[in-house]
Amino acid sequence: MSRFFSGKFSSLVPYTPGEQPSDQQYIKLNTNESPFPPSAAAASAAAAEAERLQLYPDPECRELRGALAELLGLETDQLLMTNGSDEILYYAFMAFCDEDRPAVFPDITYGFYPVYAAVNRIPYQEIPLRENWELCPDDYVGVRGTLFLANPNAPTGIALDRDQVEWLLRKRPDDLLIVDEAYVDFGAESCLPLIRKYDRLLVCQTYSKSRSMAGARLGFGAGNADLIRDLNTIKYSINPYTVNRMTAAAGAASVRNEDQNRRNCQIIIRNREWTAEALCRLGFEMTESKANFLFVRHPELSGEALYTELKKRGILIRHFSLDRIRDYNRITIGTREQMEKLVLETERILKDRRKEKPAAGAGN
User: Fold this and answer.
1) Which residue, 224, 257, 290, sits at the end of a domain?
2) Same domain, 146 and 277
3) Is there a single domain that holds both residue 104 and residue 249?
4) What does the pLDDT look like over 171-204, one tens digit per residue?
5) Are 183 and 154 in contact (CB under 8 A)?
6) Residues 128 and 219 in one domain
7) What is the C-alpha separation between 117 and 110, in angstroms, rounded?
8) pTM value?
C-alpha cells in the first residue's frame, strides 16, 4: 500500500471475487453466473438505451421499479434498485448498524459481510453454523444487533423455510432482520410475503443469478417504506446514479419476460439434481443445496487438489481457504453438457489418484 493509505484500513481484508482468467477458455463453474444469456428483449432494451448515454439515468428507476413492484405484488415505495445486491447490503450496514447495534451473521456465509462491517468500523458477531452446516434459528435468539442471513446460505446452499424466518422475526422483536436472497429462485422460499407483516424485515435480491444479468449489475431491496427511505438517504448521500440506463432498461424488460427466467431456473435445478446424483456415485459428500451451486467434498481428495486438477483440464470451480471449509469446493451449476464434462473429468482425476496410491505405498 502507499504511504497515503489511511491507517484506519491497515488491517482490512478485502473480499476475494471469483477468478475471471483470460489465459484460455474455461468452463466457468466458479462464480455462480447463469449459463444462459438474458432474454432477447432485455438485450434489445439495453442496446436501445446505449444510444442515449449522453443523458443521466433516472435515479429513481421508476419504470423498472413499477414493473418489478407489479411482478412482486409490492408498492413502488417498498423497493430500492441498486448496483447489484452487494450495494443494497452495503447501504444496510451503513444505515442500520453502529456501536449500539452491531452486525450479526453466521461464521460461514457470504464473504462480504465481515468486509462491510470492517470497512465501516462496525462491531460484529459471528454465530457458528452447526456441524452439519445448518443454520439453527435458536442460536440467534437473545443476540442483539442487526441480523444478516443469506438464505439460501452461501457457500453451503442450505435454506431456511419461510416459517423458520418468521419464527426468528417473532423471537427478535426489537431488531432488524436482513434476508439476502441471492439464490432464492432455485428452490427456496422467498420472505417477500412477510414484508407487509413485519416492518423490521428487509429482503435483498439480485438479477445476477436467476435473471442472467450478472454483467449488468442490478439488485434491489424490498421492505417497509420507512426502511427504504432510510436506505435512500444513504444512496443520495453517496451517488444517486448507481444504476445506469442500459441496466435499468434491461431489468424492466427482463421482468416482463419472467417466464423465460423461470424456465431457465427449472433447467438449472434439474441439472443440479443430476450433478448431485452423479457426484454422489463418485463418493462425494454434499449439503442439500437450494441454490445454483453444490457444496461438495471427497474423502480421498482435498478441496484444493480437486480445484487444481480441474483447472488444468479447463474447468473452474471455487475453492475456499478458510480452515473450516478448506476440504470443500463450491461448484456452480451450468448447462447439462458442462456438468457432464465436470463429472467425466472428476471421475478421471479420482481414477488417476487411486492408481497412484499403491505406487506411493510401495516406495515407503
Assistant:
1) 257
2) no
3) yes
4) 999 999 999 999 999 999 999 999 999 999 999 9
5) yes
6) yes
7) 12
8) 0.93
221 & 284 share domain: no
Residue 174: which CATH number? 3.40.640.10
Nearest to 148 by CA among 72, 95, 71, 82: 95
Q: Report the C-alpha gap between 317 and 331 in whole angstroms.
A: 5
Domain count within the chain: 2
Question: What residue has cell string 432455485?
Answer: 186
134 and 158 in contact (C-beta within 8 Å)? yes
Question: Is 3 within the bounds of a domain?
Answer: no
Asked whether residue 248 falls in the same domain as residue 117, the answer is yes
Structural domain ending residue among the three candidates 257, 289, 313: 257
Q: Which of 106, 338, 321 is nearest to 330 (CA)?
A: 321
Q: Does 13 reside within a domain?
A: no
pLDDT at 321: 87
Q: Which domain holds residue 28?
A: 21-34+259-362
Whether 204 and 178 have beta carbons less than 8 Å apart is answered as yes
> How do residues 105-120 score in pLDDT, each as one tens digit?
999 999 999 999 999 9
Alpha helices (H) in 54-191, listed in sequence order: 62-72, 84-96, 112-119, 162-171
Beta carbons within 8 Å of 257's beta carbon, 6+ residues apart: 39, 41, 42
Burial status of residue 263 (CB atoms within 10 A of its CB: 0-12, 13-18, 19 or more):
exposed
Residue 36: closest CA among 257, 203, 192, 190: 257
Is pLDDT of 14 > 90?
A: no
CATH number reported for the structural domain that contains residue 337 in this entry: 3.90.1150.10
How confident is the model at residue 364, as a pLDDT? 43
pLDDT digits (tens, 9 = 90+) for 273-332: 999 999 999 999 999 999 999 999 999 999 999 999 999 999 999 999 889 999 999 999
The answer to the question of residue 105 being in a domain is: yes
Q: How confident is the model at residue 65 (pLDDT cuts 50, 70, 90)?
A: very high
Does residue 115 lie in a domain region? yes
Q: What is the pLDDT confidence band of residue 17, given thresholds at 50, 70 and 90?
A: confident
* Spatial distance between the Cα atoms of 258 and 215, rounded to a whole number of angstroms: 18
Yes or no: say if 99 and 123 are a contact pair by the CB < 8 Å rule: yes
pLDDT at 349 over 70: yes
Average pLDDT over residues 66-86: 97
